[in-house]
Amino acid sequence: MKALVQTAPNTLVHRDEPDPAPMTGEAIIRVEAVGICGSDMHAIHGHDARRPTPIILGHEAAGLVLTGRLAGRRVAVNPLVVPADCAFAQQGRPHLSPRREILSMPPRPGAFAELVRVPEENLVEIPDDMQAAKAALAEPVAVSFHAVHHGARLLGRPLPTARCLVLGGGAIGLAAALVLIQAGAGEVWLLEPNADRRATAERAGVPFVRAPADGPEDGSCDLILDAVGATATRASASRLARPGGVIVHAGLLPGTEGLDVRRLTLQEITFTGTYCYTPEEFGTVVRLLASGRLGALDWLEARPLAEGARAVSDIDAGAVAAAKLVLIP
């Protein structure tokens, strides 16, 4: 098969690789589309020791099942693999398992390839007429879905009465804004420095899209989702949160600076992390995407897998207006 292989930091090579062989309970998927995630970018730049080179990255995938009980079906791939006997899995929180594995991290090769092996229980069927590129959005949108509802549970007030703010207009941020709208949030803001991405978010239907300097007044936001996780966004979240509000930290950039712990303490502001999703949430998101309830999903751009290295360079250069780049093998 052809695959996009990271051979060293900042080096991606489109080359022949051995076809995967399924283990017990696994199926082979012909990848029809696979998204480029921020964690892929982090690994490509050599900042993720969990992903040693050479490695096939990519975990946001959709495709056609070639083997097993679902052969011939089209599916979205839940890349998070957790043993059924794990205590966290039995509690309904498999995403918190210390034994979790994920496609694109050893021992599981990722989906920047024509073929990938996946446990059958991690496959969620999609309609025959659903575009693969849109189905590949299931994984990042599930991250946003979990983050939004995790924050809403902590909020202590009905979401329709809340002013909600998303920091960052990439795929996680834009999807979070769309999930908030679908969930009936009272007011939804999105702050993004890139003008092209702001235009993309506006076209997607987010009501209040602004540059960071033009955001809501300090201390006015009930629920804030930080989809960037940088020093500047942590500082903004600390400043903009209303007393008693909730900050959900979804970004994975390194560092802890910017968080105003004194203000969080004095104003009883809840700060929480968020990670991945449950299998039930992943299935819910696939149904929402397929039904059109999260919009037209036209905020992605598809490119050939063979041009993956160029796609990464364009993301680094800030030359991509789309919230998500999807590669087509």
Task: List the main descriptive attributes of the protein structure presented here.
329 residues; alpha/beta; Quinone Oxidoreductase, Chain A, domain 1; Rossmann fold; 2 domains; 7-stranded mixed sheet
Structure description:
It is built from ten helices and 18 strands. It has 329 residues and is of the alpha/beta class. The protein has two domains: 168 residues, Quinone Oxidoreductase, Chain A, domain 1, CATH 3.90.180; 133 residues, 3-Layer(aba) Sandwich (Rossmann fold), CATH 3.40.50. Strands 3, 5, 6, 9, 10, 17 and 18 form a seven-stranded mixed beta sheet that branches. A six-stranded parallel beta sheet has the order 13-12-11-14-15-16, sandwiched between helices. A three-stranded antiparallel beta sheet has the order 2-1-4, with no helix packed on it. Helix 4 crosses helix 5 and helix 4 crosses helix 9. The longest helix has 18 residues. The model has no long low-confidence stretch (mean pLDDT 96).
CATH topology descriptor of the largest domain: Quinone Oxidoreductase, Chain A, domain 1
| Helix/strand/pairing category | alpha/beta
Mean pLDDT: 96
The gyration radius over C-alpha positions equals 19 Å
Number of strands: 18
Write the layout of secondary structure elements.
Blueprint: E1 2-8, E2 11-16, E3 26-35, H1 38-44, E4 55-56, E5 60-65, E6 74-77, E7 80-81, H2 87-90, E8 101-102, E9 115-119, E10 123-125, H3 132-135, H4 138-155, E11 163-167, H5 171-182, E12 187-191, H6 195-204, E13 208-210, E14 221-226, H7 231-240, E15 241-249, H8 261-266, E16 270-273, H9 279-291, E17 300-304, H10 308-316, E18 324-328
Helix pairs in contact: 4-5, 4-9
